[in-house]
Amino acid sequence: CCRAQVVTFLWRAAGSPEPETEENPFTDVPAGSWYEAPILWALENGITTGTSDTAFGPAGICNRAQVVTFLWRANGSPEPETEEDPFADVEAGSWYEPAVLWALENGITTGTSDTTFGPGSQCIRAQVVTFLYRVAQIPEPDPEPLPFPDIT
């Protein structure tokens, strides 16, 4: 799955919202292309920053680390509850480690084995939509209780 496809899947899952900006910093994202609005939306929502300040790399193939990170960012980059990483191939402190741990905790992925995640492995369409489906199954968090003073 290429970067433009993954971002478009996320954008569609979010209801295909129109981006607020029309300013496109990416020279490799043509105006009016099928992926321009999804990429601008993803940029303004902190889901991606592109491959550089002026390039998005729409045709670049996404790996598992990138897809899980896009999903994690689209969900507000929540801190994982655990720091225990069962995957030998997910380096501690890597840019994608919190996203992988969050995805594992929420049942979005179980890895490619009990001890590997496969962060550099290409992510095919079936995997991307499976991850998206599983993210949609995450229950909404309970609202914070109102801060009533203790009157006892």
Main sheet properties: none
Look at the structure and give the mean pLDDT: 91
Helix-strand string: HHHHH
Q: What is the terminal separation in angstroms? A: 58 Å
Strand content: under 5%
Q: Give the oligomeric state.
A: single chain
SS-derived structural category: mainly alpha
State the total count of DSSP E strands: 0
In one word, what is the shape? globular
Percent range of helical residues: 25-40%
Taking Cα atoms only, what radius of gyration do you get, to the nearest Å?
17 Å
SS field, number of helical segments: 5
Report low-confidence residues grouped into runs of 5 or more.
none
Task: Provide a descriptive summary of the structure in words.
- Helix 1 (3-13) packs parallel to helix 5 (125-136) and helix 3 (64-74) crosses helix 4.
- The protein has helices spanning 3-13, 36-44, 64-74, 97-105, 125-136.
- The model has no long low-confidence stretch (mean pLDDT 91).
- The protein has five helices and no strands.
- 32% of the residues are buried.
- It has 152 residues and is an all-alpha fold.
Give a short summary of the structure:
The chain has 152 residues and is mainly alpha-helical. Helices cover 34% and strands 0% of the residues.
Topology at a glance:
Blueprint: H1 3-13, H2 36-44, H3 64-74, H4 97-105, H5 125-136
Helix pairs in contact: 1-2, 1-5, 3-4
Please tag this protein with its features.
152 residues; mainly alpha; globular
